[in-house]
Amino acid sequence: MNNPRLLAGVYNMLINCANALPGQRLLIAYEPERFGHFDGDVVEYLAQGAAQMGLNVECIDVGFDAETPSLSSHLLNSMKGADIVVFLARLGDQLRFSEMPHGTMIINSYTLNTHLFKSAFATADYTAFEAVKSAIDCCVAAAEQITMTCNSGTHVTGNPNLKGVAAKDTTLKRFPLSMFSPVPAADFSGKIALGGFLTGTGSRYFDEQTIEFDAQVYALLSDGRLAGFEGEPADVAKADAHYDRVADIFDIDRNFVHSWHAGIHPGCGYPWDIRKSYDRWAGAAFGNPRILHFHTCGAYAPGEISWNVFDPIVEIDGVLLWENGRLMLERLPEGAEILTRHPSVAKLFANPDMNIGLRERT
Q1: What is the spatial distance between Cα 76 and Cα 73, in angstroms, rounded to a whole number?
Q2: How far apart are CA 309 and CA 261, in angstroms?
Q3: Is the pLDDT assigned to residue 342 strictly greater than 90?
Q4: What is the C-alpha to C-alpha distance for residues 32 and 342, in angstroms, rounded to an integer?
Q5: The whole model's pTM is what?
Q6: Is 34 exposed, middle or buried (0-12, 13-18, 19+ CB in 10 A)?
Q7: Alpha carbon distances (Å) from 140 to 32, 278, 319
Q8: Which domains does the chain have, with CATH numbers?
Q9: Cα–Cα distance between 212 and 221 in angstroms, integer?
């Protein structure tokens, strides 16, 4: 841990993202390894690195609550006494659109293990991706028409209607920063080629929250509403039954499609098989530009069921910004400047990590 290169991800999180200073108090709210999502050594890795940087570190076990996540009084009191809070727990993701205590830097980390913490996903300069996110948010907000397609048959068009509207995102910081602000789906229509399955959004967890299809299934979108599915009859019946069940469990608007966004971090690699854990995949791989996803089933962010499109092609007012799963940042007015200011990030965009856990599918 004394090797600065091994601490690059910790430094990036605490300095570039959290603006930490020696002597400040860091609270790590962690989910124990026994729940099968975060590796236990990632907590120790962050704690040791933070201590070496002069921070006073406290760790608190927040467990995992699948259906009714909340900030306990013990956790709230601990958060109030901290300068920085880092969630290495799904609790942070579950509450990412909820109100959080003010006056404390709160970060939700998607570094599920030390492999991700040491990879380009976590070590690539956070400030560069703040600029990337801001540039894309501005481009989307000014857009008149956005078209999304893919080689599997996706074709969706719409107007984000965000002119003069402040971007809405999570109430805490994401680390690494790998998504732009969600785009309302209310004025989008078309056909979405689902990536072979339906899975959860990381909001709430329930039994059998992932279903797989035998053939290509399309979700039909009409002005922000699910209008049905196309595909083999057995697959369509399975999709409809899944939506019926989830909507019934939570008493939510079955057909509401809330928003969508795509990955912006070319270092977000996922070298593990998606089928080993869709939950882990959904909690780490979504930031790769090869993945675009919709938040559906529930009239709130992020809903309960996600639609995942692989290798999207996204055109914004004539600018082809995502091309077969690659984010062509240089095509934005601010993009070339960002790449010039951050040459190591420019190399990452030139040689993106294309691994998103689909080896057995391709």
Answers
A1: 5
A2: 10
A3: yes
A4: 36
A5: 0.93
A6: exposed
A7: 38, 29, 11
A8: 4-118 (3.40.50.2300), 126-168+177-350 (no CATH)
A9: 20
